[in-house]
Amino acid sequence: MAKPKTLRGGKVRVLLGDDATPIEYTAPCGFTSKSITLTKGLEEVQIPDCDNPDAVDWLGRDAVSLSMGINGEGLMAQESVETWLDAWESVESVPAKVEWEFPAKTITWTGFMHVETVQADAPNGRRVTSNISMQSDGEMVRTVTPEAGG
Fold it and tell me: Which CATH number fits domain 9-39+67-146: 3.30.70, 2.30.110, 3.40.1350, 3.30.420?
């Protein structure tokens, strides 16, 4: 039996871009866990049985939208707190890149995202942690890059 080629959590990266041309992306410091959610919006339509109008209809579903959401949590890092706050305060979405680096290929999405929430948890006597939520703003373009020799 062949074993699957998997990746570790550090090979999933969330990066924010700057205003330079070309955009330079960096991963803000502090995340110890990330969750990327790819969502397809669906609309339901009842499909009647034309031969038996009294039969219970089956539901058909049409894809109407795609979306990406990101949740990241970890330590509140001095090095990145203002990056997150600036993105949260911005009326405009910010350039973002998500990477999944497998042994033989890297899957990358680039586009724009809004920082939806910045949460700080501050238990007495312990380190402050943060939880960041982001939502895509328009298309996140996916590319797949094979690794050298992959």
Answer: 2.30.110
Over residues 46-82, the pLDDT tens digits come to: 999 999 999 999 999 999 999 999 999 999 999 999 9
- DSSP-derived 3-state class of residue 34: strand
Nearest to 60 by CA among 47, 42, 49: 47
Q: Where are the domains of the chain?
A: 9-39+67-146
Q: What is the residue type of 100?
A: W
Q: What are residue 29's DSSP bridge partners?
A: none
Measured CA to CA, the distance from residue 140 to residue 70 in angstroms comes to: 12
